[in-house]
Automatic annotation (TrEMBL):
Assembly with partners or alone: Complex I is composed of 45 different subunits.
Keyword Mitochondrion: yes
Organism field: Anopheles gambiae (African malaria mosquito)
Membrane spanning stretches: 12-34
Membrane topology reported for the UniProt record: Peripheral membrane protein
Localization per Swiss-Prot or TrEMBL: Mitochondrion inner membrane
Pfam families: NADH_B2 (PF14813)
Protein's name according to its UniProt entry: NADH dehydrogenase [ubiquinone] 1 beta subcomplex subunit 2, mitochondrial
């Protein structure tokens, strides 16, 4: 705990690890935004739910 002073400086491994992890995270986000932009823009085709059969939906037959 520190009051009016800086806390202890993190170790070099922790600082480098945080920079590497943050850099990897941003690379991952920007890479996928560039190569898979359909997730953001909605350009992929959505299936028509009215064409699904009861078997595909897992609805049992109406055997009364």
């Amino acid at each position: 705990w520190s009051y009016r002073v800086n806390g202890p400086k993190p170790e070099m491994l922790a600082r480098v690890g945080a920079q590497v992890a943050g850099g990897f995270m941003w690379w991952w986000v920007l890479w996928h935004l560039f190569h898979e932009y359909e997730h953001i823009t909605g350009e992929f085709d959505y299936p028509d739910p009215s064409s699904w059969t009861n078997a595909e939906l897992g609805i049992p037959a109406d055997d009364v």
